[in-house]
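Weekly modeling sync, notes
Attendees: S.R. (lead), two postdocs, one rotation student

Agenda item 3: backlog of single-chain predictions. S.R. asked that every request posted to the team notebook include the full sequence so nobody has to chase files. The rotation student volunteered to paste the first one in as an example of the format we agreed on. Action items at the bottom.

Example entry:
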Amino acid sequence: MANKKLTFLRIFLRELASLVSAGIPVHRSLEILALHQTDPWARGLVGRLVSRVYAGEPVSTAMAAEANTFPKFVTGLVHVGEETGALATNLGKSAEFVEQMDRLRMKIFSVITYPLFLLGVTLAGIVLLVEIFVPAFSPVFLEMHATLPLPTRVVISMFKMISAPLFWESMLVILAIFSFMHFLNRRHDQRRLGWDRFVLTLPFLGGLMKRWMVAQIVRTLAMTQSVGISLPRGLAMLEDTSKNEVFRVFIQDCRLVLARGENLSAYFLARKNFVPSFVSHLVAVAETTGSLESLMLKCGRILEEEIDYLLQRFFAFLEPGILGFMGVAVSFILFSVLLPLYGMMGLIQ
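Predicted structure, as returned to the notebook:
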């Protein structure tokens, strides 16, 4: 459902911005979009927006009432657009922000799903091989009444373990316990903070997540600067959209730094384990020259390029590694089956 809402949000904001920029009143633009929604959920959502706008509410207030779909950052940008007369511009910037963050999110998500998919296919192939190939020869091995080679004994033991109902029941119990503990962690702030910190310490994935979070911050700084929103307010809106507790705490600290009148670059430099050094120096230059928007956009592009580069390197090593693991595993199973057969043929001769 989350992906469905995000896809709807990207398209809806972009289409609404186009209609409003063409001079169509916002209430009429919402009516047009409501008529063209094919999904019942989306049609009902836009219909509720139309009803609220016709009742006299600003469109930002109507969106805020649908907080499960419209993040606070988006409704904040729309509200500023209503106040400044730049509603179409801010709707377009909202759509651009959602698209950029979704693109980064999908890149990180692909890092998780692709290796899991390859590993799952590999393990499924090995299990099928053990379940189909080994049973055909195991009676022959047992009738030999001889000491089987170690690889053969290992494969037969694997077959017996996988075939036992207790093995699968144990896997289900472990999965249920892990899911329940994860559910409890997500509902408890301190446990969630500990879990999110652990994720950020993972090799490679932790580095990607940190770059993604910093990219969100610098994009927010550039966006708030372009539409006239204060930096603390923009960070507060971004904080409400984040689901990572470490990221939320980091944004809260950034807001406290700004509230004390201190430079954000100094805080970034003190958090070298979280913020890349070039980002801290670019922020320092932006604070000195006043060119925050252009430098933060440049910084965001650099971080995206780094993420792309890391992903390309990761996939360049991942696929051969998993295929090599699969080849070694299959070769080991075939070797364990053929080794005693070869020995038995030697005895017959």
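Discussion: group reviewed the output briefly. The chain has a mean pLDDT of 79.
Action items: rotation student to repeat for the remaining queue; S.R. to check formatting next week.
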